[in-house]
Design a protein that fits this description.
Blueprint (H helix, E strand, L loop, with lengths): L4 E7 L1 H31 L7 H23 L3 E8 L2 E8 L5 E7 L3 E15 L2 E16 L2 E8 L3 H8 L9 E7 L8 H7 L3 E2 L14 E3 L9 H36 L5 E2 L2 E2 L4 H17 L6 H25 L6 H40 L1
Parallel strand pairs: 5-8
Antiparallel strand pairs: 1-2, 2-3, 3-4, 5-6, 6-7, 6-10, 8-9, 11-12
Helix pairs in contact: 1-2, 5-6, 5-7, 6-8, 7-8
């Protein structure tokens, strides 16, 4: 007699409490950054250094807000998937409200079995690895529409035991070399309507189109469907908006700060000697590198736009300073040098971003050849 296969996933108070503990630590970090920025701004001789904890605290606050919002929307729940008595049994329960959904699919009603990838991201230091697991998906029809239930087995031998629980000699089996980690069961119909799956003729022994339970440094291919592409474009638009806002805020902070510090900076041999000038550069260069420069496209036009924007900020702030304060004759030469260095740092950030992308692309190609 074949053993029963039971898969239980739970979101409990303990698991949510662990995440809330991490969020609490992040909130303490945000508070510490805020206190440090306040103290430096008002009680030290060099208040501009307070921009560093201020920006760090702002980033931590944004991450804290969205993480807490997501956790609050996630209910306590229990998901049970079971194979017994010649059927697939699925129970989902909201442990907070008591709401429950139950599905019972006899083997006779199964119309197809799909096998695809399911990847899991592993981070070790600065390295990111993907663990590849086989994902078995059961398909059946209900009220004229196709429904799906999926099973994931981390161990290769256990997966083949799971596969043998089904009467595969009587059910069509298909394999697809795609990653379905981002696709829940209720959206799989979109995947298999658009993605071409390969029908398995030799069902025993089963040969997968990928290596199960392996580690890879490159992400497995996602389904090539319209919905997935639209989602990627929507995510890219959101990323661009966040980048524009972050860079704009950084440049505004730089502009306002320059109005305050330019009259105070000493000039030697036609150059500002303050070490704080590098701090202002990082305020807008880091967002540019994060959101725009580390991309595959060599968009030189936008690089020129960014350099013009930075030069305009320094020029405008310098002009306002000359109108409101008495400055030395060397001020203009020092300001021109500062503008040149600011634009040069933007160019360096652009080249560094492209080198990072080139390194990743070469690493992926080498890894694929090894496979």
């Amino acid at each position: 007699m074949k053993p029963d296969f039971i898969y239980v996933q739970k979101i409990t108070k303990q698991s949510k409490g662990f995440v809330y503990g991490i969020l609490f630590f992040l909130s303490l970090l945000t508070l510490a950054c805020g206190i440090a920025a306040f103290w430096i701004f008002f009680f030290t001789s060099d208040p501009l250094i307070g921009l560093l904890p201020f920006v760090a605290g702002l980033i931590a606050f944004v991450a804290l807000y969205f993480s807490f919002k997501q956790m609050k929307a996630q209910p306590l729940q229990t998901d049970v998937r079971e194979i017994k008595d010649g059927a697939v049994h699925h129970v989902w329960k909201n442990d907070e409200t008591g709401e429950m959904e139950e599905t019972w699919v006899p083997f006779e009603e199964i119309t197809a079995i799909y096998i695809a990838r399911h990847s899991q991201v592993n981070v070790s230091g600065s390295n990111i690895w993907y663990s590849i697991y086989p994902k078995l998906i059961v398909e059946w029809e209900e009220d004229g529409s196709k429904k799906y239930i999926s099973f994931i087995e981390a161990k290769k031998d256990a997966f083949y035991e799971l596969y043998e629980q089904f009467p595969v000699d009587q059910i069509p089996v298909y394999t697809a070399n795609i990653d379905l980690k981002m696709w829940p069961d209720h959206l799989l119909s979109k995947v298999f309507e658009s993605e071409k799956a390969r029908k398995v003729e030799q069902k025993r022994p089963l040969k997968l189109p990928f290596k199960a339970r392996t580690l890879s440094s490159w992400s497995p291919p996602l389904p090539n469907i319209k919905g997935n592409e639209e989602r990627k474009q929507a995510d890219l638009r959101k990323f661009n908006v966040i980048g524009v806002i972050t860079c704009t805020v950084g440049m505004i902070i730089t502009f306002l700060s320059l109005l305050s510090v330019l009259p105070q900076w000493t000039i030697e041999d036609g150059v500002f000697t303050s070490d704080a000038s590098l701090l202002f550069t990082l305020i807008y260069v880091l967002p540019l590198l994060t959101f725009f420069h580390a991309r595959k496209k060599w968009n030189v036009r936008w690089l020129l736009v960014q350099m013009v924007a930075v030069a305009s900020i320094y020029s405008l702030s310098g002009w306002i300073v000359t109108q409101m304060n008495q400055v030395s004759n060397e001020f203009t030469d020092a300001l021109i040098t500062e503008i040149f260095m600011a634009c040069f740092m933007v160019f360096v950030s652009y080249l560094f971003g492209k080198l990072l992308v080139l390194f990743v692309v070469i690493h992926e190609k080498v890894d694929k050849k090894r496979k």
